[in-house]
Amino acid sequence: MPLLIQNRGFDRISSTAELFDKNPHLQENARTFRSKPLVDVDPKCLLYVQQREFAATTPADNCVSVIGSDDATTCHLVVLRHTGSGAVCLAHCDGSSTWSEVPLLVKAVTSLSTVCKEGRLELHLVGGFNDDSKTSHKLSLNILAAFQKQKEDIHLETCCITEMNDIVVNGRHNPVLYGIGVNVKTGEVFPASFTYKGPAEELRSARTFTGGQMADIYDSSKGLVKIGPCKWSPNLDIAFWLSQNDDTILKYLSTSPMAEPPHFVQHMKSTIQFLLEHPDSDSLFPGGQPQLYHRTERGDWERAGQS
Asked: HSE on the CB side for 229, CA within 13 Å?
């Protein structure tokens, strides 16, 4: 099988418990990984990936030192890296279309590694927890199965998912880690948190909220973040949510109401407010072109074509 553990293929598994029982070193690696200190990543070196997005680059990138993502509860964060070229991709997968998403991630890394004959593809998976609906568990199995279907040999190195990323607090299950970063220069993957989630944070959230598919948000050859063009229809009915209390929003708009980070409700409300303020998505993409952002000398992302 093309997904390898310690250079050996493995049969399709029926549960994550089976995977960890058969590969105790993965358990140990997961415990080691989740005990690492949480790094608060400097926005000036960061490329932040939101839900249902991915980004890939190489160590030669002068604009990005860390790719990162957080706010994952049942979602899984996927890092795929080629050890020869150093090309690396990070994705925030929510299970919306895992089987079509995984080949995009493999292609993103292999296309940046074409001149490199040495090295191998290494996979790091972090996310999910023991949620009541087993959403995390299903996503874990689907991601592993999708990588097994790829023709390339892919080596599973870190697997801190579902029960290995679970902690019980006050009788309730929660993820241990909600976010990770990957150092583009060294390939190190580490637990991380982020104060900055841009550029175009609300636009990108609106794209996902309205059903946008997994999107590649970065052109590493030009150092440009590219968003859209996105398409949504005016929907005034969503204003209903702005008047609802936190518990109602959590109950109906989250896959894991009891495990969301504290800013979840405000994030949902600001996304809905953005959609109400921009009912016509076309107006955000003049000429049907994506919004482009480049990194300034100060380290901020700035809309390209603007002074």
From this structure: 12
Residues in contact with 286: Cβ distance below 8 Å, sequence separation at least 6, in sequence order? none
* Exposure class string for 41-77: b at 16+ Cβ within 10 A, else e: bebebbbbbbbbbbbbbbeebebbbbbbbbbbbbbbb
Structure-block tokens of residue 251: 């109950």
Phi, psi (5° rounding) for residue 218?
-140, 135
Q: What is the pLDDT of residues 283-306, one digit of tens each?
A: 999 999 999 999 999 999 999 974
Domains and CATH numbers, the chain: 3-200+210-228+289-298 (3.30.1330.200)
Distance CA 63, CA 65 (A): 7
* Contacting residues for 100 by C-beta, under 8 A, at least 6 apart: 214
Tokens of 221: 């050859």
At 265, the amino acid letter reads V
The rounded Cα 293 to chain-centroid distance in angstroms is 20
Residue 220 has pLDDT above 50, yes or no: yes
Alpha helical stretches, state H, 133-219: 135-148, 201-209
- Whole-model pTM over 0.90: yes
